[in-house]
């Protein structure tokens, strides 16, 4: 039996370490290059990048959301749209930037409504694109976490709009999983919780090589986040039964076996899946398996799920990697 993992780090604030941002671009070098130009007010490289991305909807969503996260994105997208008023790419990027602005701390009171209108305008301009609906789903998540009435129903509707355009949309499934995990925190480690049913259904519906095979692990981690926040689970995985039950072991083994057979390095959010898998293997105490995943992750760490213990994600990641690699 593998030894239990150590506590993943000392309790600290949740945001990343100063000087160590978590880059939503992950390992997309073309995106990183275009974003650098965009942040200086030169949007032609972004126009070329998005035109080349075409209808690869997972990649388009990943790229537009990462571009929209830049602090200056809203202003530069407005400039682009002024120059090219009929550009669907500029319209969609502006809508996603409006959502990113609305989700920031201390956003103005009307920012969510303006962002919603911008997204709906983008859906009308390019009905086939699921990306504006993805941005709406991000807004729904913020509304749901604040307990707004109707947020869950809106999220379900927007998710179905995305699936109608791209049934395997990776980021949309992750967002929906995170939202479903937040229901009924008082039920604790309920193996019949709806988030587990949703993740299992999505994985079964997807083709054999789809990265949605990892979604049950994502659901397990998202539910852990909710239960830790509710105070019903230990923030130390070694002291939590969440990672040691029979169902948890089956889910994590199935996902790791899928990775061994089908590793999808071509997928734009591949590193996000690896972070969830590595986190699960560390929590399970499977040192060798976690080490293989950390080697693949390289420098492309993500804040989720390393923040799900309620601690600062960067030292959590470093402690987990030291445990896996046997480093002092």
General description of the model:
- The protein contains 16 helices and no strands.
- The protein has helices at 29-38, 44-53, 57-68, 73-83, 88-102, 111-125, 131-145, 151-165, 170-181, 194-205, 215-230, 246-262, 270-284, 287-297, 303-306, 313-325.
- It is 62% helix and 0% strand.
- Helix 4 packs antiparallel against helix 5 and helix 7 (131-145) packs parallel to helix 9.
- It is mostly helical and 328 residues long.
How are the SSEs placed, and which strands pair?
Layout: H1 29-38, H2 44-53, H3 57-68, H4 73-83, H5 88-102, H6 111-125, H7 131-145, H8 151-165, H9 170-181, H10 194-205, H11 215-230, H12 246-262, H13 270-284, H14 287-297, H15 303-306, H16 313-325
Outline: globular
Which structural category fits the helices and strands? mainly alpha
Task: Please count the helical segments.
Answer: 16
Estimate the helix proportion, in percent. 55-70%
Number of strands: 0
Low-confidence stretches: 1-19
| Average pLDDT metric | 90
Order of helices and strands: HHHHHHHHHHHHHHHH
Largest sheet data: none
Give the termini distance in whole angstroms: 22 Å
CA radius of gyration? 20 Å
Strand content: under 5%
């Amino acid at each position: 039996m593998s030894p239990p993992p150590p506590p993943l780090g000392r309790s600290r604030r949740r945001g990343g370490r100063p000087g160590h941002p978590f880059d939503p671009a992950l390992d997309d070098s073309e995106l990183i290059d275009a974003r650098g130009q965009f942040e200086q007010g030169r949007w032609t490289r972004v126009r070329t990048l998005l035109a080349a991305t075409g209808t690869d909807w997972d990649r388009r969503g990943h790229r537009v959301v990462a571009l929209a996260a830049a602090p200056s994105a809203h202003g530069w997208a407005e400039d682009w749209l002024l120059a090219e008023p009929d550009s669907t790419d500029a319209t969609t990027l502006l809508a996603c930037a409006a959502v990113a602005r609305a989700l920031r701390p201390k956003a103005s009171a009307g920012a969510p409504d303006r962002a919603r209108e911008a997204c709906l305008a983008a859906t009308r301009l390019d009905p086939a694109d699921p990306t504006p609906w993805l941005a709406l789903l991000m807004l729904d998540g913020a509304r749901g976490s604040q307990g707004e009435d109707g947020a869950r129903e809106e999220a379900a509707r927007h998710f179905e709009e995305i699936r109608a355009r791209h049934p395997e949309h990776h980021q949309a499934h992750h967002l929906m999983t995170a939202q479903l995990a937040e229901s009924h925190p008082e039920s604790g480690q309920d193996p019949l919780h709806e988030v587990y049913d949703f993740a299992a259904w999505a994985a079964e519906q997807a083709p054999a090589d789809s990265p949605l095979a990892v979604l049950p692990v994502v659901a397990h981690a998202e539910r852990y986040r909710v239960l830790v926040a509710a105070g019903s689970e230990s923030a130390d995985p070694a002291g939590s039964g969440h990672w040691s039950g029979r169902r948890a072991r089956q889910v994590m083994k199935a996902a790791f076996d899928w990775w061994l057979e089908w590793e999808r390095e071509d997928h734009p959010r591949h590193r996000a899946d690896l972070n969830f898998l590595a986190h699960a293997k560390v929590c399970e105490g499977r040192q060798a398996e976690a080490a293989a995943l950390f080697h693949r992750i390289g420098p492309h760490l993500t804040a989720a799920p390393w923040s799900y213990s309620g601690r600062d994600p960067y030292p959590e990641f470093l402690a987990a990697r030291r445990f896996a690699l046997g480093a002092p």
